[in-house]
Amino acid sequence: MEPGHLSIMPDEIVEYLCSSSPELVVDGTSGGGGHTSLISHALPQGRILAFERDPAAAEDLYVRFKGTNVTVINASYTKIPEIINTKSLPKAEGALFDLGLSSIQLDTPERGFSHRTSGPLDMRYDRSQGKPASEVLRAMTEKQIADAIFRYGEEGRSRVIARAIKQNRKLLTTDDLAEAVRSVVKGNPVKPLARVFQAIRILVNRELEHLETLLAEMHHWTESGCRVAILTFHSLEDRMIKLHFRDSDHFQQFDPPWLLPATAEKRKNSRARSARLRLGVRL
Ligand SMILES: C[S@@+](CC[C@H](N)C(=O)[O-])C[C@H]1O[C@@H](n2cnc3c(N)ncnc32)[C@H](O)[C@@H]1O
């Protein structure tokens, strides 16, 4: 068990990725380092490249994995081909992507990811790039915000919520955004709040664009037979991956094509309840 973030489906992931003793495994979203550490221990002769977009998380990973077989890189997983090339590494024989944000980020109020704590409305994984959520929302029209909430949050009340967001002139903090949602949602606001915050996070970090780039380029840096495991938490990203593994010329779905967390894990870790592990193999 990792402090701060409970890694999802650890046993299934280690078995899938490490059973053939791959030489190089990429962890594209190292986060709290939980999966990275398990893979590192399972492959004492192997090498792990751990990517992390968030500089604060990467700082902790550098310290944690100093002197091990893990090389930490503070960059988006879209930079994998470039890094493998410049370091003259072999192609990867295993890869893991655990999409979204970590509990550590969610539970740090000043990052602005959670409707449960007060903080600046930021939500960027990397605060040195792009604009915070407050500015992104300010620059958008009501219709654009409604579309984003509907698409990325799968929230049916997107239009009234978008109107309330645009009417809240301040919109500087997580409380301002949460208040705008609560002002128009009748009944328990917890689910709409979670969906709206998720939607804005996906928008601010351009998460689906990063995923699209990853999928389009993955065949360049993976060896034939390379096993790829992707943990998804959202139907849009899950569908993109399913279609890629099913229809791409370079990948096929593993048998079975996906796994779900066991009931005991879902009981222990609420984040696991919406998780699905997609499995693909490089042809
Ligand atoms: C769910 S957490 C990973 C948790 C990790 N598997 C563990 O066991 O501790 C996802 C991490 O991916 C990072 N991330 C999100 N988008 C990324 C991207 N495009 N490239 C690299 N890291 C990204 C987030 O900053 C976050 O730390």
Question: Overview of this structure, please?
Answer:
There is one protein chain. The protein has 283 residues and is of the alpha/beta class. The protein folds into 2 domains: 171 residues, 3-Layer(aba) Sandwich (Rossmann fold), CATH 3.40.50.150; 79 residues, Putative methyltransferase TM0872, insert domain (DNA polymerase, domain 1, Orthogonal Bundle). The protein has 13 helices and 7 strands. The chain has a 7-stranded mixed beta sheet, with helices on both faces. Helix 3 links the parallel strand 2 and strand 3. Helix 1 crosses helix 2. The protein is globular. It binds S-adenosylmethionine.
Instruction: Please report the number of helical segments.
Output: 13
Instruction: Give the ligands present.
Output: S-adenosylmethionine
CATH H level, superfamily name of the largest domain: Vaccinia Virus protein VP39
Number of strands: 7
- Indicate the percent of residues in helices: 40-55%
This entry's quaternary arrangement is: single chain
What's the level 1 CATH class of the largest domain? Alpha Beta
- How many structural units, i.e. domains? 2
User: Mind telling me which CATH architecture of the largest domain this is?
Assistant: 3-Layer(aba) Sandwich
User: Average pLDDT across residues?
Assistant: 96
At the fold tier of CATH, the topology name of the largest domain is Rossmann fold
Global shape: globular
Distance between the termini: 34 Å
**Order of strands in the sheet with the most strands?**
3-2-1-4-5-7-6
Instruction: List low-confidence stretches.
Output: none
Gyration radius, in Å: 19 Å
Which band does the percent of strand residues land in? Answer: 15-25%
